[in-house]
């Protein structure tokens, strides 16, 4: 099952135009350890180079290079021909992810710069290209081991250590191009309202000039049946409209909502008209669902939601942070569902938009988590804030995302327990996130030492179920800093207090089989029976604690030296997945 707009491998599946050019594949590539490239004008005359397969980074085997040593400056080059019939349109070059600082040239002319390894970005390269002829694209990617960069699980020393892995440098997500009209739909923000049976559209229009008479024609359908069609006049570059879809919806209202059990998605087509002429046509979709908190419970569509989540770091053996292909993303979601989980916490990574698409389609709940910095100063605050404020709008329309997680385990804010400045930083990010999206919970410091937070999330890798039950028997002591957990951590930072938030154990488990080549949490187990007994005992203890609203097990798959996955890094089950499912659903 897919949406009407689905195109295999399309990099931006929630905002689809039928004509596009895939620029993944072979590029020329060169290291620039001396940082000579700009002075020597490599953008005009590329040096003798090796080949690389984009979007895989040079550190990965899939790139064709497979060198894991850090190189701070890398260059890419390729040519492409733009069809002559597209002359008069705008050529938009899209990068879904480049780590960390990207500079772009086209036919020797400087186009622009973007900083941030996890947010998507684009350049309008129209002034620099020739339609009907070959054009040269050159990209320089600058990276560093600086801990003020949002870097997630990427190491900042020469060797991997603890839970930090080989760095990711340069292009690591898809590159593509589309030719669009001068006047076009730039974005559509879609906000569902379950209680009022509404969907709100916020249209942003690019290239609007005085005197243009424009309308947007919008067609909404569900399961192949037309639900609503309307037109909206455009007189400014940002216009909004709420639409009632109750009476036209195909079936009873509750059967039209999005949930893990029934991930209903409405198809929607937007046509921008100048008079009778269509100047832009965009395909999308939306899900109508509500995530809310009431009386200490998390609700989905006004019904209690018990979250059975699993930690997902999104690494693969031969390609690291980049999925080998779209099918690998689909397979991971299917593995997670087969194990009886209804959601995942995407850990320290902003995942490929195609992954979120398939979570939307398959009904997999997602916590979206920002990549951490590991130092606190003005530069780290600036870098983190700027990139997070790009990411939240880019992911806003996905119904699968039910929680934002900007911070984890005090990483990058290591003194937050007492440091007022770090506390105020997390408060600021919380409120900025709510300004963009007041409809989803925000967890400000997942694991412990919370400041303002909509959910109280606790990480605890205690091995024995009996010990967990003893520690968490008295809710008041846990939620009000009366006792510590997980090696002397406390729920709240100094000056903050529990206000009735739902409680979730958002990391636990991490069980590893006995090995000399990696690590897990606690003692390693020898046999399948040992594993299942420990997994069952700790999971049952959490589920038996009445004030806990859900859990997140560590983790889906092994990641390099961290071998505590339920699957190996190449996605082979370590224990029968049906038994994991029975424990989760029992």
UniProtKB/TrEMBL annotation:
Residues 292-582 form the Glycoside hydrolase family 2 catalytic domain. Residues 22-142 form the Glycosyl hydrolases family 2 sugar binding domain. GO terms for molecular function: hydrolase activity, hydrolyzing O-glycosyl compounds. Residues 183-289 form the Glycoside hydrolase family 2 immunoglobulin-like beta-sandwich domain. It comes from the Bacteria. Pfam families: Glyco_hydro_2, Glyco_hydro_2_C, Glyco_hydro_2_N. Keywords: Glycosidase, Hydrolase. InterPro entries: Beta-gal/glucu_dom_sf (IPR036156), Galactose-bd-like_sf (IPR008979), GH (IPR017853), GH2_Domain-Containing (IPR051913), Glyco_hydro_2_cat (IPR006103), Glyco_hydro_2_N (IPR006104), Ig-like_fold (IPR013783), Ig-like_GH2 (IPR006102). SUPFAM superfamilies: (Trans)glycosidases, beta-Galactosidase/glucuronidase domain, Galactose-binding domain-like. Belongs to the glycosyl hydrolase 2 family. This is Glycoside hydrolase family 2.
